[in-house]
Amino acid sequence: MTTSFKSAYLVRGAIAAAVLAATGTAFAAEEETGSSYDNYVYFGGFYLSADKDRTNTKKSGDSFGYQAGVGQRLTDNLWVEGQFFGDTIETGTSNGTDYYQTGLGVDLQYAFGQRSEFTPYLLAGIGGVYNDVPGRDKITPYVNVGAGFTKSLFGLDALRLRGELRAVYDDYSEGSTSTDGKIDYRAGLGLEMAIGNREPEVVIKEVPVEKIVIKEVPVERVVIQEVAPEPVSVDDDGDGVINSSDKCPNTPAGAKVDGNGCVVEQTLVMRDITFEFDSARLTTNAQRLMENAVAFLRSDSSARITVAGHTDSRGSDSYNLKLSRDRANEVRDYLVGYGIEANRLQAVGYGETRPVASNDNESGRELNRRVEFRIQK
């Protein structure tokens, strides 16, 4: 077979060759600032207004108790929490007999939004409580329902204030002839500390993307040329693994890979991702270079990325923290807008808290203004 034809088939019709852009709309996911985590521990106290039947008086007994718990995310909005609590109910009786309660239980919580931002939630749960009353000790089941909220403290995603109100019904009765249970009301306040892997919750917004329309144009002729086989030593993405053995093409420049050419866990500084001055808007050049990151994530479906934003020390701490978060979110949104699954991407900002060079000169500040990709497998 010859390597080329001087002439081939003459094409008298028209073929599709020109591309015109038309405006369209696509969906992208956006995470609220300060993402929640998969797990948390909780410590707090509560004020308890006891059922008046416990006190043998006309009014409820006042009590203060403690509680601790461990929570686990089940879905984007649903959480399960194991609890331990205890309290002493002042009965106000002349013989000085009080109620001592300790209990274990499990709650389901439905949270309306991000758990680190101000987030209301509803709860319902069951458990068992030990009522330590002289002469009438008993372990009884209980159910409770309630509502509460969480809110991050001091700008820390992992530290949250928590407040809640509960109505607790237990099956404790005063004697063998009594079948009435007791309803107590608890108002609690405490701290949640997030632990484990960070998983962003997302809301949906619309962002403009482009639709492609094909237009026919006339072409004189088509020349068919035989293409020589690709040399076995070609390494298009420059990761040190030749194309024929590379199972993960489009590796980002400078990334470490395994023997199959797939990126291993590491942190990459993306110097080419830049923003307009004092803004979270990507520069035109950065948008073009982001296509490399999109191609990498499409070729390696096992890779997950945490986008970390950093600033130099100019400006206030709070302003730099917000700017770094906004920039990290902008990069994440850009990737999601081009089809990368939102659950593979996270965004976090550190402001000026993690410099890699001195902020006393411009060259050092330039190094500190950066975006990092933390690649996880």
Question: Could you list the spans in which at least 5 consecutive residues all have pLDDT below 50?
Answer: 1-35
> Widest sheet: strand order?
2-3-4-5-6-7-8-9
Structural class: mainly beta
Give me the CATH architecture of the largest domain, please. Answer: Beta Barrel
β-strand percent reads over 45%
The largest sheet is: 8 strands, antiparallel, barrel
Radius of gyration: 31 Å
Shape: elongated
Descriptive report:
Residues 262-377 form the OmpA-like domain. It is found in: Cell outer membrane. This is OmpA family protein. There is one protein chain. The chain is mainly beta and 377 residues long. The protein has two domains: 37-198, Porin (Beta Barrel); 233-376, OmpA-like domain (60s Ribosomal Protein L30, Chain: A). Helix content is 13%, strand content 45%. The strands form three sheets. The protein has an eight-stranded antiparallel barrel with strand order 2-3-4-5-6-7-8-9. Strand 6 and strand 7 form a beta hairpin.
Protein topology:
Layout: E1 14-31, E2 37-49, H1 52-55, E3 62-73, E4 78-89, E5 99-111, E6 119-132, E7 138-153, E8 156-170, E9 182-198, E10 202-218, E11 266-269, H2 284-299, E12 304-310, H3 317-337, E13 345-349, H4 362-368, E14 370-376
InterPro entries: Bact_OuterMem_StrucFunc (IPR050330), Beta-barrel_OMP (IPR027385), OMP/PagP_B-barrel (IPR011250), OMP_bac (IPR006664), OmpA-like (IPR006665), OmpA-like_sf (IPR036737), TSP_type-3_rpt (IPR028974)
Subcellular location: Cell outer membrane
Signal peptide: 1-28
